[in-house]
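re: ur question from yesterday

yeah so i grabbed the chain u mentioned. its 140 aa long if i counted rite. heres the sequnce exactly as i have it in my notes:
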Amino acid sequence: MKHHLQEISFDTKGAVEFIDLTERVRNIFAESGVRDGQVSVFTRHTTTAIKVNERCERLQHDMTSFLERVVPRAPYRHDEATVDGRANARGHIISLLLGASETVPAAEGRLLLGDWQSIFFVELDGPRRRRSVFVTVTGE
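ran it thru and got these C-alpha cells back, copy pasting raw so excuse formatting
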C-alpha cells in the first residue's frame, strides 16, 4: 500500500470564493505513483470547505446566493469576542453545512470524477493569505 501526502497553499481574493483544485489534485495523484485507490482533500481552516460540484461561474454565483439566504449576515455572539477582530461566525456556520473534506476514488491511474465534477476549496471568510489544504493519496 502506497501513501502520499502533499500540501497546497494559496491566497484567496473574495469574501466567498470557489477555487477549483481539480488539476492540482490530479497532478498530485499522478506524482504519487498510485494507480488504484483514493484521494482525500482536507482543509485545515474552520471557515472554509471542500466540495465536489460543477465548475460553472453562474452556478457558483447561485450557490453563493443560496448560502447567503440560508445563513444570513446577522449579529452573532462569536463576532463579539474574536481574537483577530474578524466577524466570521457566519463562515464557521456555513462550513458546518459544507464539510472539511472530500474523498474521490481512483482506478487505472485516473480520478473517477464525473464529467461535470470538480474539486473546490470554498473560502467563507476571505480574502485570506496562506490558506492550505492537504491532499492524501492511498492505494496500490
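noticed a couple things. Strands lie at 2-10, 17-20, 37-43, 48-54, 101-107, 110-111, 117-123, 131-139. also The mean pLDDT is 96.
anyway ttyl
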